[in-house]
Amino acid sequence: MHRKMRKKAAVAILLPAFLLASCGKTGGQGTGGRTVSSASPAEGNQRTLTIGFAQVGEESDWRMANSRSIEETFTSAHGYHLLFEDAQGSAENQITSIRDFIQQGVDYIVLEPVVETGWDTVLEEAKEANIPVIVADRKIEVKDDSLYTAWVGSDCLLEGQKICQWLKLFADARGIPQTDLRIVNLQGTIGSTPQIEREKGLKEACEIYHWNLLAQERGEFTQAKGREAMAELLASHPDLNVVYCDNDNSAFGALETLQKEGRKIGTDLANGKVLVLSFDGTNKGLRCILNGTIGCIAECNPLHGPRIESIIRDLEEGKQPEKIQYVDEELFAADNTVPEVSVNGTSYPVKAVTGQLISDRGF
Ligand code: GZL
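# beta-D-galactofuranose complex -> structure
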């Protein structure tokens, strides 16, 4: 059964009748609204907090792990009533959900924005309703940054800079001239922070190392679009030898197409193999490094539930959380050909992927 259906079914079994009635209220037009945790008497003197969470969608393994982290954190046992809205990739749906949350008088709004722009008006409405907004994962661009209380997420520009440093050093180590790198980019959702910042990292490196960025196609962070985009790129640029994928799922799609078209995949560029690079570091992505089909992955950590809860707890205790909170992330490769990379004077170790490393990770 589809996850959303399964979750609704679970909610239908577990929720008292009065909450079932409210289930429909959390779903705006076309959004996958559901009440995930029912209100419950909070422990001690803590009041039950109602959290309105506007999620991007279900486009990738990363997103599913991110949603699980939110649902496992904001449970009724922890004193929360979580209203979970899945926007199915539409920022318009998220705006509708935020208005629903305001109408319901939630205690906090948590927004993981599809794209960076278009939030000023609806966040003004949340501010007028005195509802704090916490932004996570991707960033927002607003005229007045008092419209949100704090942001927590990844430095996607640093992710791009790290993986490009790895590529530069890897080519040097293998005796491949930098100008022999012929790169295509499978872009994530256009206008999203990871797409903007990972592209910036790539284009900076192309400028510095004189790489050839042959073309960019929209992979939309999904396996299906990654498959299609890779087919377009192979047709227009059969001489490509590096595929820079904005996330693991689009990389999985690219790998399917490359294999279907009979292209050799791996790190041996000197012998005509196509080198695939990616972001996220999901379990499946790391297994691709282990089997030699992805050369390097820059981690993008999705486990934001506890980080968001820490911000909320600070606010409940009258403390002011840090406004911008970046999470620390790793760089993964098959071996130690490149033992570390340096970005803006800071060194980052490269982690060689093993079966143990994969089984020890949380997503
Ligand atoms: C990154 C996150 C991106 C992931 C993708 O912060 O927003 O969206 O890299 C996900 O896997 O779909």
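# post-check
Residues 6-153+302-326 form a domain with the Rossmann fold fold (CATH 3.40.50.2300).
Residues 156-173 form the longest helix (18 residues).
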